[in-house]
Amino acid sequence: MRTWKTKKEFKKLFIEKAEVLFEKNVKELSHREVYQIIATMIKDLVSDDWIQTEKIYNHKRVRQVYYFSIEFLLGRLLNTNLLNCDMEELCRSALQDFGFDLEDIFPEEPDPGLGNGGLGRLAACYIDSMAALQLPGHGCSIRYQYGLFDQRIIDGQQVELPDAWLRNGFPWEIKKSDKAVDVRFGGHAYMRPGKGGALVCVHEQYNTVRAVPYDVPVLGYQNRTVNTLRLWKAEYTRENMYGQLRYGDYRKALQYKDQAQQISRFLYPNDSTYEGRKLRLMQEYFFVSAGLQSIMRHYKKHYGSPKLFDRYIALHINDTHPALIIPELMRILMDEEGLSWEDSWRITTNSVAYTNHTILPEALERWSIPMFQELLPRIFLIVDEINRRWLEAVQQRFPGQEDKAREVAILWNNQVHMASLAVVGSHSVNGVAKLHSEILKINTLKPFYTWFPERFNNKTNGVTHRRWLIESNPQLTELICDTIGKDWVHAPEKLLALEPFGNDAAFRERLAEVKQKRKEILAEYLHKERNITLNPHSIFDIQIKRMHMYKRQLLNILHVYHLYRQLVENPGMDIIPRTFIFGGKAAASYGEAKITIQLINTVARLIDQDYRAARKLKVVFLENYNVSLGQKLFPAADVSEQISTASKEASGTGNMKFMFNGAITLGTMDGANVEIHQEVGDEHSVIFGLRADEVQRYYQEGGYSSWDIYNSDADVRRALEVLEENPMFGQLREALLDRNDEFFVLKDFKSYCAAQQEIERRYRDTEGWFRSSTVNIAHAGHFSSDRSIQEYADEIWNLDAVKI
Ligand code: GPU
User: Does the interface predicted TM-score (ipTM) exceed 0.85?
Assistant: First the structure.
């Protein structure tokens, strides 16, 4: 295995690197420089294994998967990579000799925020698991110059600042200039008879954007596998610019240069909403085309005939953002490799598999045909032909039934429907939790399910227990290892061995100590870094996720306000002190989500200013929730708030991170909460609210009036008074009452309040609480992304592990 054999060797290399990179001796180094040195050393250390991994894959011609995702929310890599090569302790000790504390070095790494939320973080967990399981699998995405915005809270309101995460370079990447490829945009495409009369495509007068790959090594967990995350940067080409300058068109030349560079400039900050902008479509085609061209080039060099592409290569698309891989593969096979439509179509559909991540209609991608056609004329011709052949098949089966065609058309209403393209052009369609996968079949993708029932399957999400337990919570990791040994580290389902210890008083006591310790660590951190004071003896009740109406942070804060009003009226009320922690970013254009942040901060201030309430309650909205802050929060949580409107949260993954850290889920029967509940039962989770089928029935049949609830429930009426604090909140009041509460906040209010009381009741029973905590940890193994990825490998990709 890759190692620095001794501390002495590490120190020698460290001193050399300090000299080479910074011309400094060790004493003169800043913490940031120490970070950069170690990252560079790790990159050097694994380079042999990286090359070796590549060689073995190529030499053995193993089947490989490429995971295409427009987001990879990596989080910091230093700790992960040290853990993966089992060098954390040696490094810590060597640095100590130099007078540095490794814990001071970690925070120097900027958090690469190349994603919005769950979808992007899932991609990051998945490449981690592929390497851990020694599966030949790689990531493909965009090297955004600016990641998700930096969130500041000023006067209670969100302000967005650019996230210049690359400012000081990214020591984990290697630029591969010689592997650059060109991507074409615009121009004209048409078919004309070629040699022998067969139609061939002509594409002319296009612009060329150069795609330059930057490779990031993805290390397996204490094995020698090093896979690759390939991130593409967009550059202009001088040839293209000079071409325009030759005609004296300076304006056009500069416009081209500017546009080309824009493509990889910034990540779109929308989570689960569709942004129909041209630049986003350019991003989507850019990384898909670049990625696929480089895969094909590599494939032909090492594997051979494009006719066998699907035997060796699996292409996975993380939602529809990379769905253009379908027409792009058709283009390459036909226009560049000379294959027939039929052969190309068989290869394409056999290669591609699609994961759907939402049923929210506002998230379904639909591109305007005129824009699509102008930007991607050749790709449009192919999509048009895919659509024509597909509708022909539909017409044959249902002659004369227009509505059947409309439901499943790829081109309809002057728009390209990307989900339809993704389903028609792939061999597998999966949802991300059991409930979600069922809803896809009976609602969202129902007409496709009747056509292709065999394509539909479920792959419940997972999270990497290496980052979310071992790395984030060493205290709990140590306790688990002391109790059941270390097997679970490689086989997380073996955490089940912990379950009986829920009945062991000594174990429960140690677990309680760990939780207390983690709450104190969090409190100390927030005190020092953010000037926030928490009571570590209160219940830590945490909701951290993107701000979204369907996630119902509003329900949470209305309940807090309800408690506040009760305390003001009855200061002697006997409740356990509670700290409600919120964190999450709102898309800059999402008005209601931003106002909800303001509301949370308003309630926080009301409580702080009222002694009667402040003794018992505390609300904090944490600025700039991201992966690294998450790693401090999950270990400190007592209560995991998973309160989305049933049917709306496809899976959720934060719920799983809380579970690994022994928090109790307070949730609706939504997404993967259903499976968490199935694992631990009513006794060890608290479930409330409408069920998914009830929600769906209300949408279909009506029958819910939020005014009725308002009129009949005095608690609801009083809770809504907080919305009179600031005229801004009128918008939320309207959504709840005049727009009939799309997300059933008022409908679920009573049941949520009761569930919160149940949490308190259970918390008073310390023995029962930590028994529940134990059961949750014991059953969390099922939610490791290792389990998810093994299922993808076995059931979708047909992929074997490769020993390095
Ligand atoms: N999700 Br679509 C995102 O984070 N962003 C998106 O654009 C879309 C979905 C989330 C789901 O909301 C969440 O329930 C799920 O756990 C996650 O994807 C990963 O599957």
Answer: yes
| Residue of 545, 559, 578, 771 marked catalytic | 545
Residue at 1: amino acid letter = M
- Residue whose Cα lies nearest atom 18 of ligand 1: it is 119
Same-domain check for residues 442 and 573 = no
> Does pLDDT of 219 surpass 90?
yes
CA angle 744, 746, 751 (to 5 degrees): 95
Query: Kind and range of the H or E element at 774?
Result: helix 766-780
Which pLDDT does position 216 carry in this prediction? Answer: 98
Which residues approach ligand 1 with their CB closer than 6 A? 116-119, 122, 271-272, 319, 357-358, 363, 432, 461, 649-653, 671
Q: Residue 1 has what pLDDT?
A: 55
Q: What is the position in ligand 1's atom list of the atom closest to the CA of 650?
A: 14
Please indicate, yes or no, whether residues 437 and 553 belong to a single structural domain of this protein. Answer: no
Q: Tokens at residue 554, please?
A: 């509003």
Does residue 804 lie within any of the structural domains? no
Q: Which atom of ligand 1 is nearest to the CA of 652?
A: 16
Cα 272 to chain centroid, rounded = 11
- What type of residue sits at position 198? A
752 shares a domain with 715: yes
Parent domain of 689? 474-783
Across the chain, what does the average pLDDT equal? 97
Question: According to the model, what pLDDT value does residue 402 have?
Answer: 82
Taking only the tens place, the pLDDT of each residue in 86-117 is: 999 999 999 999 999 999 999 999 999 899 99
Instruction: Name residues whose C-beta falls within 8 Å of residue 285's C-beta, 6 or more positions apart in sequence.
Output: 183, 185, 324, 328, 375, 376, 379
The count of structural domains within the chain is 3
**Beta strand segments in 170-206, E:** 174-175, 181-185, 188-193, 199-204
Pocket test for ligand 1, best of 358, 362, 460 (most atoms within 8 A of CB): 358
Atom of ligand 1 nearest to the CA of 118: 4
Rounded to two decimals, the pTM is 0.98
Mean pLDDT of 505-513: 98
- The pairing of strands 188-193 and 199-204 is antiparallel
The verdict on 268 and 395 lying in the same domain is: yes
Residue bearing the CA closest to ligand 1, atom 16: 652
Summarised one tens digit per residue, pLDDT across range 124-174 is 999 999 999 999 999 999 999 999 999 999 999 999 999 999 999 999 999
pLDDT for res 4? 83
| 411 phi, psi to nearest 5 deg | -105, 120
| Ligand 1 atom closest to the CA of 671, numbered from 1 | 14
Helix H or strand E segment including 154? strand 150-154
Instruction: Give the whole-angstrom CA distance, residue 661 versus residue 783.
Output: 12
d(CA 398, CA 112): 50
The question of whether 61 is a catalytic residue gets the answer no
**With 90 as the cut, is the pLDDT of residue 197 above it?**
no
Q: What is the pLDDT of residues 363-419, one digit of tens each?
A: 999 999 999 999 999 999 999 999 999 999 999 988 888 888 899 999 999 999 999
Q: In the beta sheet, which residues pair with residue 67?
A: 139, 316
CB atoms within 10 A of CB 529: 11
pLDDT digits (tens, 9 = 90+) for 612-649: 999 999 999 999 999 999 999 999 999 999 999 999 99
pLDDT at 732: 98
Beta-strand pair 157-161/150-154? antiparallel
Q: How far is the CA of 709 from the centre of ligand 1 (A)?
A: 31
| Residues 506 and 410 occupy one common structural domain | no
Domain containing 617 — which CATH number?
Answer: 3.40.50.2000
Look up tokens 């989570």; give the residue.
271
Phi, psi of 282 (to 5 degrees): -65, -40
CA of 199 to the centre of ligand 1 (A): 42
Within this chain, do residues 207 and 311 fall inside the same structural domain, yes or no?
yes
For residues 338-357, give the mean pLDDT: 98
CA of 650 to the centre of ligand 1 (A): 7
The residue annotated as part of the active site, out of 53, 80, 208, 653, is: 653
Query: Which parts of 682-780 fold into alpha helices (H)?
Result: 692-701, 706-712, 714-719, 730-736, 745-764, 766-780
